[in-house]
Automatic annotation (TrEMBL):
The species this protein was found in: Sulfobacillus benefaciens
Gene Ontology MF annotations: catalytic activity
Gene3D superfamilies per the UniProt record, alphabetical: Endonuclease/exonuclease/phosphatase
SUPFAM superfamilies noted in UniProt: DNase I-like
Domain Endonuclease/exonuclease/phosphatase as annotated: residue spans: 32-216
InterPro entries: Endo/exonu/phosph_ase_sf, Endo/exonuclease/phosphatase
Designated name of the protein: Endonuclease/exonuclease/phosphatase domain-containing protein
């Protein structure tokens, strides 16, 4: 199973005259299409930091002839904000409709600032998260999610960990048989830090996969990542 993840810096508005610049939605849409044109595209693609307009974006993607021809379906999954409405840090999942398709479960609790997603595609599952934007708390939140996933026999977590990969020492032994793995050698955030990567347990093989090139940090401050489980 090939999985992709991209923090899209609060994208979602499709009712705009500024399609490719200030609201960035068109830029993300075009990059997603590039991604799905690759020789080995993701089976499931997770877009994070999707705003309250995410439902409209998912509907528009599902009406797009290219997305339909490639056999994908988009689903918006809103996380609640402190007032009970949709958070601007919700997620949108684009999955290939193949065999049994895909299922998305919103998981959370136990002191997590934001929920995370458990995504199952053709009987294989993984977690996707956007951890709290506080490096002093983010790693604790990530390990809490790992505990939850282990209890569900899930062995991979991808996402914006909000904890710089450079903080791990070369001899870091991981957490409870899980280890972090970065995509490539370059940074994933503003050309400076690596916040987006994958965790996996020692029994699960994970390999980096091709992603669309990304260098315009002024438009989207995170780069896409992809792995094969």
């Amino acid at each position: 199973m090939r999985i992709g993840f991209w923090n899209c810096q609060r994208v979602g508005n499709i009712d705009t005259n500024n399609w490719f610049t200030a609201d960035r939605t068109g830029f993300v849409w075009a990059t997603v299409e590039q991604w799905l044109k690759l020789a080995s595209p993701p089976d499931v693609l997770v877009l994070a930091e999707i705003t309250q307009s995410g439902e409209k974006l998912a509907t528009a993607l599902n009406q797009d002839s290219f997305i339909q021809a490639k056999g994908y379906r988009a689903e918006f999954h809103a996380f609640a904000n402190k007032n009970g409405g949709a958070s601007p840090c919700s997620m949108l999942v684009i999955g290939k409709i193949d065999r049994r398709g895909f299922q998305v479960d919103i998981c959370g609790g136990r002191g997590l600032k934001r929920p995370y997603l458990k995504i199952t595609w053709n009987d294989k599952s993984f977690g996707a998260c956007h951890a709290i934007a506080n490096p002093n708390q983010a790693l604790d939140e990530v390990t809490t999610i790992i505990d939850d996933l282990q209890a569900q026999d899930v062995s991979v977590l991808i996402g914006d960990m909000n904890y710089d990969f450079a903080n791990f020492s070369p001899d870091y032994q991981g957490y409870n048989q899980w280890k972090p793995m970065r995509w490539g050698d370059g940074p994933s955030f503003q050309g400076k830090k690596t916040l987006d990567y994958v965790w996996h347990d020692s029994s699960t093989a994970v390999f980096p996969r091709e992603v669309p090139p990304h260098t315009d940090w002024a438009v989207i401050d995170h780069a896409p990542i992809a792995f094969e489980i």
